[in-house]
Amino acid sequence: METLANFVKARRKEVNLTQEAFAERAGVALTVVRKIEQGKTNMNLDKVNLVLKMFGHELAPVSSRELFNNPESA
Hints:
This protein has 74 residues and is mainly α. It contains 5 helices and no strands. 14% of the residues are buried. It has one domain: 434 Repressor (Amino-terminal Domain).
């Protein structure tokens, strides 16, 4: 499974944007992009989703019950 940090960094590079340019287009501070790409875990979900929206993705909270009872996760 690809990490969030690797996903964002790889996709940003695919579209040939610097962290600064990407942050501006995503509507977030440069520090948000840097923290995501560094794999920081204490992030604001709304800010992360602004970044992921650039690639047509979104994160949502999931309970452990949903994770372990989902037959697709096997």
